[in-house]
Amino acid sequence: MSRNDSSDFRTREAIRVHGDDCVGLRIGIRAVDIVVREFGILEDTKGLKVRLGTKQCLGDAFKALLHLDDNQIEYAERDDIIRATNGTSKIELHLTRSKLKETNDVLKASEAELFPVIKKSSN
Ligand SMILES: [Zn+2]
After folding, report:
1. What is 47-112 written as a DSSP string?
2. Strand ranges of the sheet holding 73-75, from the earlier edge strand across to the other edge
3. CA of 100 to the centre of ligand 1 (A)
4. d(Cα 80, Cα 66) in Å, to the nearest integer?
5. 100 and 106 in contact (C-beta within 8 Å)?
6. Whole-model pTM?
7. CATH tag for 9-122 (out of 3.40.50.10490, 3.30.1330.130, 3.10.50.30, 3.30.390.30)
8. 62-119: pLDDT as tens digits
9. How far, in Å, from the CA of 89 to the mean position of ligand 1?
10. How far is the CA of 80 from the centre of ligand 1 (A)?
11. Would you give the distance in Å from CA 55 to the centre of its chain?
12. Do residues 95 and 105 lie in contact, with contact meaning Cβ atoms separated by under 8 Å?
């Protein structure tokens, strides 16, 4: 069973917060995984800020899984880029341009397919 299967606890929690399951939410969950990995986030997410040039659905994945409040998430003009910073580093995730129609398409996609550009830099 893949870790983003809907039976997965985190996925269920994200769906609960979002009120629905959708492609955007599933992409958001994958983005959260990358941000957590790249920043080495364990518990404390207070210093984290996320700027989303995406559908708002993705923001609910960040809220649900990293317990971010509204001050930590900014919804920007749509450019299909997720920008996150923890104060010392920045990461940019560029969303794929291919159309994902179903949540299953997100599950099947590799990280490189979903986010063709992942840029990390220091502030
Ligand atoms: Zn949605």
Report:
1. T-EEEE-S-THHHHHHHHHH---GGGEEE-SS-SEEEEE-SSEEEEEEPPSS---SHHHHHHS-HH
2. 73-75, 49-52, 81-85, 89-94, 117-122
3. 13
4. 21
5. yes
6. 0.92
7. 3.30.1330.130
8. 999 999 999 999 999 999 999 999 999 999 999 999 999 999 999 999 999 999 999 9
9. 28
10. 15
11. 11
12. no
Any idea what DSSP says for residue 46?
T
- Tell how far the Cα of 31 is from the centroid of ligand 1, in angstroms: 15
For 73, the token pair is 């998430």
Ligand 1 geometric centre to CA of 7 (Å): 18
In one letter, which amino acid is 123?
Answer: N
